[in-house]
Amino acid sequence: MNYERTVLIPGEVSYSNISQILNSSSLLEIISELIEDAQETRNTLYPFFQLFLVDESKQKVHERYDLEQIRQLLLALSINSLDHLDESSYFSFPKLSSYRETLALFVEDTFNLWRSKHRFMKKADPFSHNSRTRIHKQISLVKNNSDLKSLVLGVYRQILVNISARRVKVLRQLPGGAQAGFIVDRPKPKPEAKIANADFLYNMEYVWSVVLEPPVIFYTYSNKRRGVFKVVDRPILSKINIDNPQDWLVFPIYVNDKLIYVVVYKEYFAMATGLANLYEFADFESLENRRPDGIYIFGMNKSFFEDEDDYNGIIYKEDDGTYVGLVGDDPSIDYFGYMKKMVLTIHNLIVIDEDRLPIHGALAEIKLRDGQSFNVMIMGDSGAGKSETLDALNRIRKQVSEVNILIDDMGSLDILEDGTVVAYGTETGAFVRLDDLQPGYAYSAMDRSIFMNPNITNARVIVPYSNYEDIIRPTKIDYFFYANNYEKIDDNKPPIEFFDDVDKALDVFSKGARMAKGTTSEKGLTYSYFANPFGAIQRREKHEKIARKYMETLMKSNVKVGTLRTQLGVEGYEDEGPLIAAQELLKFLKGGKDV
């Protein structure tokens, strides 16, 4: 039997009675999961569970074992000591004094398995345009989750005390409630705001607020993204039918000013939770008056896809111009990169349709202590050293006043009427490798971060860093660099090198060379057109014309365009490389003065 890792907890309920825990379906499922594991491994708990065996001929756990008696045992232990149960003629449980330590282990494993689940509290509550009313609704959800946490911990401790008082010497306030809470409602879109052939969208609940309970840590089945999302210029919505809308939620977000509906199956709510630290959630006024620019369905049944490998990510274009992205329900896509990058690909396709230039890169406002300020954009694929260089620059406190990140990973360029090139951001947070951050940085922001697989290679953290108003504001660019992470600095390859020719610049930028850092399935020196497999390569012919136009405009308007060698992919320079790049960049910005 495949046990679900996602637990949905009713958020409308006030949690005050232990029976709400011990009579829950979640507890029975956890007990079943522990029994199945014990049967398979013959572990320490196996002899204990055999005491509750009722029909050895049955295969299903709930028919083979008396789960109800195990539940009643826990209920009795929440009130009575184990010795009392054994001595009393009222109870019909097996004599368990000789299983005292095993029983305590069972209680510990039950609690730990509960905590290993992805736990979400969902509360249906009408959206309000009044900010105070919304806060009160959020506080109500926080209280219910706090009560649940206290109740779970209280039951767990009381049972352990009644089994063996000596076991509870240190009280740890472990997280036992929901990791995230969703407040949902159903918008009432006007006819002109509805998408044709997408009736399933209007049978679902929409999230208007996310409440996080730090530290938020999720363990997923995958930690890498593979391949490039296919784009098909034909409609698909008329073929989509979701039979179980109660198992899905819609997360409506703004990616810059593009409204995208992210439709998520419950097993991937951890991926959806990460959206809270990356994007601005749309209010219901927008949903009721505006059609979405894109739709992303995360967790479609794999049987839906025409080609076997399309479940890894495919985007269709409706006749009205709406982009529809799909990924399948499969362990291999259980990685936040699939959430973030598909959303950004949809955004970039829309931007290209508007004859604007999407940029896979970072933009920062660098303020020096001498009063000077520069807007520096660094383009490059994942692991090129963009964020690492800016982070290193921010640590040079003697010369740097502050580094304000306006774009962390993806943005777009536009040309104003006067010929000025400006940049717009897409995200209010960052999805970064723990290993590439300054030691201790992510943990200093633990109460705001969402961690993904912190114990393995390519461990990630989603950290909010900006607000929506800042990223949608047009920002003039002063310097535009390509992040070269694979070349070691020497006399022929300086840290910073500028171009005086559009064709030379386009040659470097369009090759998109980098040393892969393990953030995708790629290894070694790789090439990705314009360092942007998220829309640019799928629309390469049109993108090339746009890129040339923008590069010419940048250089004509005296924006310095060049290469910044971060050395992040050079063995032995993983830490020092971005710091050297930051120091050289600062030296240049200061007019050649030593840092």
From TrEMBL:
The species this protein was found in: Petrotoga mexicana DSM 14811
SUPFAM superfamilies per UniProt: PEP carboxykinase-like
Name this polypeptide is given: ATPase
